[in-house]
Amino acid sequence: MKTGDSTQKTVLITGATDGLGKALALLLAERGYRVFAAGRSAEKLAQLDAAAREKKVPLESVALDVCSDDSVKRGVEHVLGKAGAIDVLVNNAGVNYTAAVEDLSMEAWRAQFETNFFGVLRVTRAVLPQMRERRSGRILMMSSISGLVTAPTQGAYSSSKHALEALSNALRMELYPFRIPVVLIEPGYIVTGIGKAAAELSKPYVEKDGPYASLYARFFISVNAARTRSKTTPEDCARVMLRAIETPCPKPRYGVTSLYHFMKWSKWLLTDSAMDGLLRRRFGVTREN
Fold this sequence. Notes:
The chain has about 290 residues and is an alpha/beta fold. The chain has one domain (about 10-285): NAD(P)-binding Rossmann-like Domain (Rossmann fold, 3-Layer(aba) Sandwich). It is built from ten helices and seven strands. Strands 3-2-1-4-5-6-7 form a seven-stranded parallel sheet, with helices on both faces. α1 packs parallel to α2, α3 packs parallel to α4 and α4 (about 105-135) runs parallel beside α5. The longest helix is centred in the middle third of the chain and has 29 residues, at about 105-135. The chain is globular. The protein starts with 9 loop residues before the first strand and ends in a 6-residue tail after the last helix.
């Protein structure tokens, strides 16, 4: 839908208070969509409302915690009660626990999947019935380059994104008869608030003197270098998502950033051993003496 269309489409975006979700919410509001921007932090929702007022675009914030059945039910019912239908769902809420597989607690593993996988499943199941009954709708899934390849210390995050890819593949087949495309958005590294949040979540693991201490140090050197090299902004990613929303026949996947495209082709062209070698060199993974 473009500005000036007679039919205003309604979009629900989870994790819309920061980064990619916030950029998309503001862009779609500018384009004339009716945007419901969801998040669980009242403070961040207020900041988003302020940003929308500053840009002079209409945007409706919704308190919604993807990890709570009751919160999701209330949030979706609120949107449907006000708009009558949800035309586009953008599953963007996510967290990242950075730690070695052995170090990360089982509680943290569960928390990783509760947001990145079960949260997506929870919201999607709440929204789907009205889309299916209308034979109309579109679902965007915020995946990652980590849904294709796995870096050291990213086992939990990457596992959750691999699971999201599988869920999206199944939904794409199951919802085809009902004219509901399911689209994966797969960014590479983009500087957003998730990086700072990941550092806080990972402090108990990366700041201790354990067997993986040197691995953590090398990993964060690589991440800081990627941060300085990164040229893609959240707004760039939002424009890719806009294309995925507006095109009549969307592709199953939209990659974002040059790193994504490099790693995608490398995974296709290289053997597993060669790919492992590439990742070891990138993240400075060497054998101990």
